[in-house]
Structure formats: C-alpha cells, structure tokens
Amino acid sequence: MKKSGFLGLCAVVALSSCATKYNAGANAPATTSPSASTTTTIPRGSTDELFAQLLQTGKDVGNDVAQGDMQTARTKLADIKAIWIGIQPQITNASEELLNDTQRMINLFTTAVDRKRPADADKAMRFLPSLVSAIVN
Q1: What residue spans define the domains of the chain?
Q2: Which superfamily, per CATH, for 47-136?
C-alpha cells in the first residue's frame, strides 16, 4: 500500500471514530413538570403614578442581580414590563424620541436580568428620572 493511501485510510478511521453521539437524556427517567403559569396585572393610574411605580420597582434591580437574587430580579422585571405596558398608551402622544428613550431604559432592565448585568439596571436608573421629568412635565 502506498504511503498516501495508508494516511488516507488512517484519516477515515480516525474521523469515523469521532462520530460517537452521546445522548445524556437517553437513560434518564422521564419526568414531566407542570408549566408555570403566572398572571401579571397591568397597573393603572396616571402617568405620574405609573412612573413613580417604575422608579420604585427598578431602584434595586441592579443590587438584586449583583447579589444573585435572580428570582426577585425576575419578579421586579415582570412588574417593570407590566408598568411599561400601562404607560405606553399614555405617552404615545409624547415625542417619539422620549418614547424610544424610555423603551431603551426598559431594555436595559431586561438585559440586566436576562444577561446578569447589574450595571445595565444601574444605568437605567441613572437616566430614567430625567426621562420621567421630561415626559411628565
């Protein structure tokens, strides 16, 4: 056998030996868990009241994430998103820029919790009060 044929055969054997699949769940017992169902109530109130709720709810999200209290952070994020849903129709008549800027702050809270980046929540809390005063006044 030529040297190049031998090397080719070795390569085929080596590659085919790497094709083993491991399915960790194949031998695991089948379990089912009920899906969690939560209902979030959309808060109602004036723009001032809803923004006050947003500021109050968001103030410690960064600390919660930094301390690893993700359950509390996720609960607060759900509340923040619900408050945002309640606020949006009320500030739709405000400038498009203010609406978009506020959406960016909500996105920062989301990335803070989803990606465990507490600085994003802190950044949202640094800029949100000035947005609130611009929208409410």
Answers
A1: 47-136
A2: Flagellar protein FliS (1.20.120.340)
128 close to 98: Cβ distance less than 8 angstroms: no
DSSP H helical segments within the chain, as ranges? 3-17, 47-58, 61-66, 70-91, 96-114, 118-136
pTM for the whole thing? Answer: 0.69
| Residue-level pLDDT, tens digit, the chain, 137 residues | 555 454 444 444 444 444 444 344 444 444 443 444 455 677 888 888 999 999 999 999 999 999 999 999 999 999 999 999 998 888 887 778 888 988 999 999 999 999 999 999 999 999 999 888 877 66
